[in-house]
Amino acid sequence: MRKLFPLIFLLASCGGGGSSSEPSPTVIAPPPSPPPVVDDTLKKPVLTVTQTLASWTESNAHTYRLVYHKEGYKPTPSGYSTINGTERFTESLQTDISLTSGTWVLFVEAYDELGNSLFSDTVLVSY
To answer: What string of pLDDT tens digits covers the 127 residues of the chain?
Structure first.
C-alpha cells in the first residue's frame, strides 16, 4: 500500500481518476503579429557630384537642401537649393543653380519633420 499512495495522490491532484463536470478551458488565440517596422530613422546622405549633376542617396528625410558656395567663402541665403519631398535626389549644376567658374563646395542637408538634420560630406567641384 505504501507504493500506491503517491500514485493515488498524483491522480487526485491532477484531476484524474474520475470525470469532472467542469467545462474544459477556453483556448485563447495569440494576438496578431504587429506590422513590420519601417526604419524611418534619418540617415546621413551620400553626395556624388559630376561636372553637371549633384545626386545623393535617399535618407528618410522630409526635405533635402543642396548647399553650395565658392571655396573660401561662406554660404549665403541664396547659396542653396531646397528640394521638398522625397521624389527627387538630383540637382543640375548647370541649369538649376548655374555655378560659374571657380571651385565650389557642395553638401546636402537632409532633415525630417521634427527639424532633425544630417549633412553629407562636402564635395569640391571646379569649373
So the answer is: 555 445 444 444 555 555 556 777 787 877 787 776 656 788 999 999 988 888 998 888 888 888 888 888 877 666 676 666 556 788 888 777 777 888 989 899 998 888 889 999 999 988 8
| Nine cell digits for residue 74 | 561662406
Alpha carbons within 13 angstroms on the beta-carbon side of residue 62 total 7
Which of 106, 108, 110 has the alpha carbon at shortest distance from 124? Answer: 106
Q: Which domains does the chain have, with CATH numbers?
A: 47-126 (2.60.40.10)
Q: Where are the alpha helices (DSSP H) in the chain?
A: 4-13
**What cell does 73 get?**
567663402
Q: What is the DSSP letter of 70?
A: E
Let me know the angle formed at the C-alpha of 107 by 106 and 108, rounded to the nearest 5 degrees.
Answer: 135
List 83's β-bridge partners, or say none: 64
Give exposure, 45-58, as e/b (b: 16+ Cβ within 10 Å).
bebebeeeebbbee
Question: pTM for this one?
Answer: 0.62
